[in-house]
Design a protein that fits this description.
The chain is 73% helix and 0% strand. It is mostly helical. The protein has a domain at 1-108. The protein binds one DNA strand through helix 1, helix 3, helix 5, helix 7 and helix 9.
DNA sequence: TTAGGGTTAG
């Protein structure tokens, strides 16, 4: 094809088609022709930026951008979108700063701020998000639906629900994008009742729902373990003829799994016409969450036969299944497998390795896995603290607890179960009481029966059985058999036969 | 010409 024989209009049309279908090679041939052209064409060059951005080459898009003798706001916003969608949101924000300094730029438009706000969401850069918010309010850009939705999404995703709801109430217009962000925001912040109210109050408006809504609502059913709502939604998906995409399909599998209906989860999975690593991982997780660990591991073999490669979540599910079975050898093999495929460095895999080694009896390997992690979260700390405690390493558990505080991690309900277990191992009655009554209260964590049982165990270990009995009598909680059994066996060890007899009679009354 | 929402782990 001679370049001269193609009109400008045709070149533009071709470029659009190539961009839409991500035909990088074909698009490049147009680029070659444009380079040879005697005059610079702004609009065509903007298309080129868009081409490279959409085809996963933001670096090349940047080169085109840098060599332009003249640019406009579209050049910038196309490149920003390229950065954002190729995992470089910080570059997008950097670019908007550059753009604001350039004099020949027109004023920023709604495209620029929709992308900037989405970049803030992705980076969880609330500070810069607030700056964008201020600007779009002042300029009136907030009334563009894309900007408004990006703003809503930013607040909902960072779980700043009050700010999100304020935007929702003050800026008119409501569409499926806003709805989806809102459902996910409510679910993410644990406001399940609000989410259920929102969803069940929608009546006829369900016609507006799209794939993303269904995935979000299925996630809501899973989080609230609401199988009845789950059935309704599944039924609605079938009636409305919604396509069983891998997203919707995996959402259904996950919903049934989390609601404990493993048969329906299995059936939904089998019926999926397209399965990918997410659907496979979702069904394995469904089995594992319901205690069917061997089935989960078997599925891994079937997945391999199907030619699907595992990702970090797959390894996490499999390692946790090994933990459930105390299957150290398989766990070791999976560890090697994850290392070879480069997934070991992921946080979820590291956490699952700590859990697997700890539950399989190898606390040293668990500590090594913990020590080798590049990145840790509260799950990592809780896993290593409770792991050490369960293996009688009270000193090490408390050391880890203090390291965790030093690193600025905030303890949770689970953390204190590990800490109180550690106090039990070391016979630190006063420390235990201090954690239970002061430390937890200061953090606003309401102690539960697990903590109280640890306290009974601690008092028993220290030989203070009368205090333990008193503690159980005067602490208001739903005591279970574990706590009573702890006290009973302590009576045997410490030869408190009278108390033992009373406790035994009490247990017989409760569990005839 | 450019823009917004999604599944899987603990």
């Amino acid at each position: 094809m001679q370049s001269s024989s193609i009109s400008r209009q045709t070149k533009l049309s071709l470029l659009k088609v190539f961009i839409e279908n991500k035909k990088l090679r074909s698009g490049k041939s147009i680029h070659a022709q444009l380079i040879k052209a005697p005059t610079f064409d702004l609009i065509q060059t903007n298309h080129l930026i868009n081409l490279y951005s959409k085809c996963g080459h933001p670096g090349v898009a940047r080169k085109v951008f840098d060599t332009m003798p003249e640019r406009n706001v579209v050049s910038g916003s196309a490149l920003m979108a390229g950065y954002l969608h190729n995992g470089m949101p910080s570059q997008a924000l950097h670019l908007i700063k550059e753009m604001s300094f350039e004099e020949n730029f027109e004023h920023m438009n709604e495209y620029v701020f929709a992308t900037a706000l989405a970049s803030c969401s992705e980076m969880r850069a609330l500070e810069q998000g607030l700056q964008c918010h201020a600007y779009v309010l002042k300029s009136g850009l907030v009334f563009h639906s894309h900007v408004r939705n990006a703003l809503l999404h930013m607040y909902f995703e960072s779980l700043h629900m009050e700010d999100a709801l304020r935007v929702y109430e003050t800026v008119p217009g409501f569409d499926v994008f806003a709805l989806n962000s809102m459902i996910n925001g409510f679910v993410g912040s644990g406001r399940l009742n609000d989410a259920v109210d929102l969803v069940s109050g929608m009546g006829k408006e369900v016609e507006l729902w799209d794939h993303v809504t269904y995935v979000a609502v299925l996630g809501l059913c899973a989080a609230s373990k609401d199988l009845r709502l789950g059935w309704q939604i599944h039924d609605q998906i079938l009636r409305r003829g919604i396509q069983f995409s891998v997203f919707v399909g995996s959402g259904i599998v996950d919903m049934y799994g989390k609601c404990g209906d493993i048969e329906s989860a299995r059936r939904a999975f089998v019926e999926l016409s397209v399965k990918n690593v997410v659907s496979w991982t979702a069904v394995m997780a469904a089995f594992a969450q319901n205690g069917l660990f061997e089935e989960a591991l078997k599925l891994f073999l079937e997945m391999g036969i199907d030619g699907v490669q595992p990702n970090e979540f797959t390894y996490a599910v499999l390692l946790n299944s090994c933990a459930g079975l105390s299957a150290l050898k398989i766990g070791d093999a999976l560890n090697a497998h994850a290392e070879k495929s480069g997934y070991k460095a992921h946080l979820v895999v590291g956490n699952a390795l700590i859990n697997m080694y700890s539950k399989s009896g190898s606390i040293e390997d668990a500590r090594n896995a913990f020590g080798g992690m590049h990145q840790r979260d509260i799950i990592s700390w809780n896993s290593i603290i409770t792991g050490c405690s369960h293996h009688g390493l009270g000193r090490e558990a408390l050391e880890a607890f203090h390291d965790m505080l030093t690193e600025g991690e905030v303890p949770t309900y689970v953390t204190f179960v590990g800490v109180l277990l550690a106090c039990g191992n070391l016979g630190l009655v006063d420390d235990g009481l201090y954690y239970l009554t002061n430390f937890m209260r200061d953090l606003g964590i309401q102690p539960g029966v697990e903590h109280y049982t640890c306290m009974v165990r601690l008092l028993c270990r220290a030989g203070q059985l009368d205090k333990a009995e008193n503690f159980m009598t005067y602490t208001c909680t739903e005591w279970d058999i574990i706590a009573w059994r702890t006290l009973l066996s302590a009576c045997q060890v410490h030869k408190y036969y009278n108390l033992g007899k009373r406790v035994a009679e009490h247990i017989l009354q409760l569990y005839p």
